[in-house]
Amino acid sequence: MLVLALVLLAALWELYKLVIPADGVRIGDTLILPRSDDTSMPHLSQIFGAFGKQEVAGAGGTVLSSVISSVWYSLRLAAAGFAVGVVIGFLLALAMQRLRIVERALLPYVVLSQTVPLIALAPLVYGWSGNLTLFGLDWKPWMSVSAISAYLAFFPVAVGALRGLSSPPPVQTELLRCYAASWWQTLVRLRLPASVPYLIPALKLAAAAAVVGAIVAEISIGLSGGIGRLIISYAQQATGDPSRVYAPIIGAAVMGLVAVGGVSLLDVALRRYHTHQEGTW
Amino acid sequence: MRTQAVWAGRIFKGVWPPIIFGVGFLALWQWFVEVRDIKPFVLPKPSAIFDQLRLQHDTILTAARITGENALVGLALGLVVGVTAALLASRVRALDDMLTPLAAGMAAIPIVALTPIFNTMFASTSSTPRRLVVAIYVFFPIFVNTLRGLRQIDPVHAELMRSYAASPWTTTKVVRLPGALPFFFTGLKIASSGAVIAAIVSEYFGGLQKGLGPAITSAAAASAYPRAWAIVTAAIGLGLVFYIAAVLAERLAMPWQRPQGELS
Amino acid sequence: MVTAAAVALEGVGKRFGEGPAAVQAVTGIDLTVAAGEFASLIGPSGCGKSTLLRIVANLIEPSEGSVLVNGKPASRARLDQDYGIAFQSAGLLEWRTVQGNVELPLGLHGVGKAQRREQALELLDLMGLADFASHRPSQLSGGMQQRVAIARALARRPALLLMDEPFGALDEMTRERMQSELIRICAETGAAVVFVTHSIPEAVFLSQRVVVMSPRPGRITEIIDVPLGARDEDVREAETFFATITDVREALRGRSPVAEEGPA
Predict the structure, then answer these.
(1) What would the mean pLDDT of A202-227 be, rounded to a whole number?
(2) Residue C232 exposed, middle or buried by CB count within 10 Å (0-12, 13-18, 19+)
């Protein structure tokens, strides 16, 4: 059915180009339906054709190879940020579960942080590169991008992990108390497995957030080599070749799907492990 | 009267840890920057940020108004389309089968990256591309959550309606729609804060250079970091305003619900 | 003129599923409940008593046999709203007030606003809940919610009440109070009742006849007349009460020859 939906969307696109006038539909002065000429809305064939064109006329690789290498670059940055964000988020969730006072002091901020545009901080991190040394390492521009990814991934993980760690009902936590189990044992044997169904959706959210963070950070920092930069530069070339800008955007979409898909793979791996556990302990 | 005192006491008890933490955090920040002589481009002083908020409040408010308008229009549009789609999808199975996997996929995709496409479709001097991006961004949480609410029905209520020989439309009107409200508001809370986020982020992708996003970038580029941070604070404030408005709307529309804890 | 029996079941059976995996929920049910009579269905889990009740309510179609309610086919009786039903969970709509909940069946069938209000308040008064008309369900205890559900079941003054373990979730003391209330209300309204329960004392206290069922396949094993007159609190301590309870218990156990050797 998803395929049908995509096919319908494609058909709708071409139908729109056929039916709506080239200049779009206006009410008074404002354009309410977009223009349908080939510059504003290239044919689907043109969009997919753009991948095959050479990036710079007569030299270098194709648009496709450029998109792929940019996506790979950005994906690694996002992954680094994701990893850092997940670890710190999870540690914070552990602290909040262990010490109620930490939860009461920090949780409102963590929850609220999901409602505010933290991404607005992205340009501010720009100033760090070239001027900061942390733990003996020079702060490179790419670290700013990963830092923002980490920052955005951190919050959903902290909330989801806390929810998951707190999810076992009293009947189960009391049982482990009867066994004189330590906090650590309770964590490993009960809370961690119980938190998996909450962690997975949180990790998916964090992965998507890390991807968006990386792309936006690249744009505001001006980091070349990544997909964000590629989108902007192709967009600036739009007057010359309007269908080209779709290529890196599709690449960015694929990047997001790969990131979330990666977490889904983890889901499959963990699910099996989780259900097997019931027999072994 | 005693219950009011108990209630006030409970709020205070819940509120003091985060407040103390917040104040302490700001104090520590201020001290740290002063003592270690941190340069503003790394981290400005809270006092400097606050000063800029005061001095620049006109410019900041104008920028916030523009971004806020985009967010609001996009939110309204995404709301209407999202609820309509959910209502249709709850009745037409085929539509559900098509839209739901699409929604799951779109949750993984950086929707804001679509802005350049819209910039070419419409004039890049119009606000429509950003509003469209916000609308698309908002559509998905509204659609997914409202549909979930419309699909679920307490089995006891379903049997009760059948015993009343109620028509499917009557059952929807009397039971499904009110029952779907909590789910709709879950989606609205996500969508309202998301609208501000999407509005700001879409501003980074070129187009009109008004609004909070470009203001932050230009302040950063001019190395006016306290001002940049002040604008960021305003952006965070805008996000909070939208979120709080959604929470208030929820409390107003569903007076029968007891206030829920933050994690529920 | 002979008043039609409240419920007339002839050769009723219900099979779930197909082929070798099919489950015979009930089979060969012959039962007549006279107008104004109180009959209980009692039996262990899986004996089909709830299924049977739902067949009478036309919430499930029987696989064989005929079901007449008030002299009409069950589907007609449901469309004509000839019965009221109460389930184990009260199933109140949390977004309506208590009064609003009792008004639900009235509003669904075109009763005007003023008349609805009057009838609802009258019913709440009958149940002793007039003071709680404007409360929300979440503010009431389980017992009170169940009383509202019963008031709602009585809203259209039906000739037949169907009840599926309505007191099951309540504690023993509340249960006994509710049983006495129910007897009083049935006396006042003259309604027939088919009452599903798995409590033997409850069945004996409430009914004129106790229908004993057993599982695999669900069927009626015995129908026991309860030789008690008007039910008041003293009845709970009468010898005949305990004797009938023993009678029902033995019927449930299957009246094995060993059991019959014991003292009567």
Answers:
(1) 87
(2) exposed
| pLDDT band (50, 70, 90) for residue C259 | very low
Do residues B83 and B75 make contact, with C-beta atoms less than 8 angstroms apart? no
Q: Supply A141's token pair.
A: 């521009």
Model pLDDT, residue B261: 37
C213: β partners: C220
Phi, psi of B43 (to 5 degrees): -155, 110
Contact yes or no for B146/B157 (Cβ under 8 A): no
A71: tokens are 């996506």
Q: Which residues pair with C135 in a beta bridge?
A: none
Contact B262 A107 (CB under 8 A): yes
Number of Cβ within a 10 Å radius of residue A191: 21
Instruction: Give the Cα separation of B44 and B232 in Å (integer).
Output: 12
Beta pairing partners, C210: C40, C224
Task: Give the whole-angstrom CA distance, residue A136 versus residue B10.
Answer: 47
Higher pLDDT, C264 or C152: C152
Q: Which residue from A67, A71, A65 is spatially nearest to A214, judged by alpha carbons?
A: A71
Cα separation, B67 vs B197, in Å, equals: 10
Q: Does B29 touch chain A (CB under 8 A)?
A: no
The tokens describing A181, both together, are: 């189990």
CB C50 within 8 A of CB C14: no
- List, edge to edge, every strand of the sheet that includes C219-225: C83-86, C160-164, C192-197, C38-42, C209-214, C219-225
3-state secondary structure of A154: helix
Cβ-based contacts under 8 A for chains A and B = 181
* CB-based contact, B41 to chain A, within 8 Å: yes
Query: How far apart, in whole angstroms, are the C-alpha atoms of residue B48 and residue A216?
Result: 27
Least confident among A11-20, B58-67, C117-126, C150-159:
A11-20
Residue/partner pairs of B99-106 with CB below 8 Å, 24 or more apart: B99/A5, B99/B143, B100/B144, B100/B147, B101/A1, B101/A2, B101/A5, B102/A2, B102/A5, B102/A6, B103/B140, B103/B143, B103/B144, B105/A2, B105/A257, B106/B136, B106/B140
Residue C256: the pLDDT is 59
Q: Which residues of A touch B110 (CB under 8 A)?
A: 208, 211-212, 215, 252-253, 255-256
pLDDT recorded at residue A277: 33
Mean pLDDT lowest among A272-276, C9-13, C215-219: A272-276
Q: What is the mean pLDDT of chain A?
A: 80
pTM score, whole prediction? 0.79
Q: Is B166 on the interface with C (CB under 8 A)?
A: yes
pLDDT value for A273 = 47
Calpha distance A14→A8 (Å, rounded): 10
Buried/exposed B229-262: b ≥16 CB within 10 Å, e otherwise: bbbbbbbbebbebbbeebbeebeebeebbeeeee
